[in-house]
Specification:
The protein has 299 residues and is of the alpha/beta class. It has a single domain, classed as Alpha-Beta Barrel (TIM Barrel), CATH 3.20.20. The chain is built from ten helices and ten strands. Helix 5 links the parallel strand 7 and strand 8.
């Protein structure tokens, strides 16, 4: 199988993005110079798609919106950086609720994200998790209004089922351009639940969160993780890269053109992210990893 291109289109949006994204779940602290270095490291590595969310903050012991606010301080110091990236953010989670994509809250959430970021528009706005108490027509109206007002350029979903995605798409005036599921060599559910099939059918991009299995590939425990890590290490050694690069390359080998969201907050590791373009997988090798993950042979 051939290696992926370094750039692609974000679904049907007409927006060009890198085929690897940098995620800001752990983007934290008060050191703007350090934060700026991380952003510049990603851009210098050829990563143009940067992914954040309004809920990023509390997991780091900070307040709601902290990651967006820190990025906003970076933009205030270096405004030109904003024009070098495709900025993705997410909303619809409220602490203690837990989900709210209703007609009152969602427009407020979009405006609050823009205020924290200090910019006029978010390139990709995704509903972070489906709100089971919001009719998809209600959600669609808020998103369409925000797009018409120039506050967002394109619309995506995160952690949605294919049916939930279809329901929302039915009421939107523009196509949904992205899915954002969890996907890694250890979490392969999107291969079977219809998400990747739907994405390929409709030309949607797929952004994979936790591409290293939530750290389980870095420090494998148990037979399954150890078996997968061993196979990734074989490919990594062959290609002269590390296990993480091999894992990202395995993800990108799928024909859906999956974009792994890399969350490292280490500048040197960010600089090495393009190593993921080096490994080349055969079909047999790719399926070997999948079968090790499943713990059984495919029929």
């Amino acid at each position: 199988m051939k290696s992926p291109a370094r750039n692609t289109m974000l679904g049907s949006s007409g927006i060009a993005v890198s085929t690897i994204a940098w995620g800001m779940w752990r983007f934290a602290g008060d050191d703007v110079a350090k934060a700026r270095q991380l952003v510049e490291s990603a851009l210098d590595a050829g990563i143009t798609l940067l992914d954040t969310a309004d809920i990023y903050g509390p997991d780091n012991g900070e307040g709601f919106g902290a990651a967006e606010a820190l990025l906003g301080r970076v933009f205030a110091e270096a405004p030109a950086l904003r024009d070098r990236m495709v900025l993705a953010s997410k909303g619809g989670i409220r602490i203690g609720v837990p989900y709210d994509s209703g007609a009152v809250y969602l427009p407020q959430a979009i405006d609050a994200s823009l205020t924290r970021l200090g910019c006029e528009r978010i390139d990709l706005y995704q509903i972070h998790r489906p709100d089971l108490l919001a009719h998809p027509q209600e959600v669609a109206r808020s998103l369409d209004d925000a797009r018409a007002a120039g506050k967002i350029r394109s619309i995506g979903v995160s952690n949605f089922t294919p049916a939930q995605t279809d329901a929302l798409a039915r009421f939107l005036s523009v196509p949904i351009v992205s899915h954002q599921p969890e996907f890694s060599p250890l979490t392969t559910t999107p291969l079977w639940d219809g998400i990747l099939d739907q994405a390929m059918q409709h030309g949607m991009s797929v952004l994979a969160w936790s591409p290293l299995g939530g750290g389980r590939l870095a420090k494998p425990e148990g037979d399954t993780a150890s078996a997968v890590a061993a196979l990734l290490d074989q490919k990594a050694e062959e290609a002269g890269v590390d296990r993480a690069a091999a894992a990202y390359s395995w993800i990108m080998a799928h024909p859906a053109g999956i974009i792994p969201i890399v969350g490292t907050q280490n500048p040197s590791r960010i600089a090495s992210i393009p190593d993921a373009y080096t490994p080349k997988w055969t079909r047999a090798e790719w399926y070997d990893v999948l079968q090790a993950s499943l713990g059984e042979k495919l029929p």
